Amino acid sequence: MFDYQSHFTSAIDALHTEKRYRVFADLERIAGRFPQAIWRHDGSAVEITVWCSNDYLGMGQHEKVVAAMQQTATSMGTGAGGTRNISGTTHPLVELEQELADLHGKEAALVFTSGYVSNEASISTIARLLPDCLILSDELNHASMIEGVRKAGGRKQIFRHNDVAHLEELLKAADPARPKLIVFESVYSMDGDIAPVAAICDLAERYNAMTYIDEVHSVGMYGPRGGGICEREGLAHRVDVIEGTLAKAIGVLGGYITGSRAVIDAVRSYAPGFIFTTALPPALAAAATASIRHLKQSQVERQGQQRQAAQTKAVLAQADLPVMASETHIVPVLVGDADLCKRASDHLLEKHGIYIQPINYPTVPRGTERLRITPTPLHDDALIERLRDALVETWQSVGIAFASTRQETS
Ligand code: PMP
């Protein structure tokens, strides 16, 4: 008899052996008091500070966003009640798509139930609709983009991370007549670096390739209206498809793509991940619209976040903590070992009430395990100082190398 259960247990055991078995922290957010939260653990409820949330601007508790969700749930009910095609296209969703198209200066937008689904469904559909399409994909692209590339089923080439020369080599070697799709991100979320978007657009124009950018970690946070890195750099009109999420800086849930009417209509008409699933509920769409509208005209959250991120980097670096280079709001602190990373995270939570999830392989390469800290405008200077003290004590007590020690030994 085939022993099904033992196969699952040994797969799990392998993760334990590699010290990368994931444990979830059971949290209760406290509306109006984020980044404070309650951690449910061993029958107790402990108040903690969250330092690893992707609710980058705290919009998940913004009064306009909460009110929009509540009012729409009261007036329209909870679920969408169907797929987009069969009764699920509610008016708040139509309005949200108009708002998103305007945010990115594109003709049209299409909303999915998550950013993950939007990448997987759109990349695979766009590539399949182009005959014999060659996909050129940055080596550090997110898992959802990799799945989209795989599902496309055609030929793909991986270019070295942010390496424009390597991308050009691959473009040059390809048949000029063949359709090509370059897929990349603007802000890479684990290192906090930014793609050379203008240079990639130059190449795309020179070699007649289409471009698809994931702005998941920049929408809401960069550009004068929160349109992301492409808006900040005046490049939105040069990128064919801009993808984003409603779940991070926007503070709700869902994903989307924006682009020309033709490409959006094609994905709408052919992508199984869009067609055969229930639409985003109207209350979530209304909340996302309220958040986007607010962020289009308010600079307060963006500026607050930039300031607190810069402050966090400076304060941690002054304390000799190994803050990795980052051009953005993301503050990665290097640990370099999966076991130490997990122990540091447990110690911070249990002893200091500070929650930072360890980031291990395969999310980042082995040997670069880290704590990924995401300051928001709501992490004030006193919280940053408490974070520094807790990290220093943790580095000493768990036995992790400080920045100066690391340099001496390397
Ligand atoms: N793209 C990138 C670069 C991401 O980091 C993530 C999620 N962390 C996604 C897409 C998926 O977005 P969502 O969480 O909305 O599914």
TrEMBL record:
Keywords: Acyltransferase, Heme biosynthesis, Pyridoxal phosphate, Transferase. It catalyses: succinyl-CoA + glycine + H(+) = 5-aminolevulinate + CO2 + CoA. Residues 48-391 form the Aminotransferase class I/classII large domain. Pathway: Porphyrin-containing compound metabolism; protoporphyrin-IX biosynthesis; 5-aminolevulinate from glycine: step 1/1. It is an enzyme of class 2 (transferase). Its EC number is 2.3.1.37. This is 5-aminolevulinate synthase. The gene is hemA.
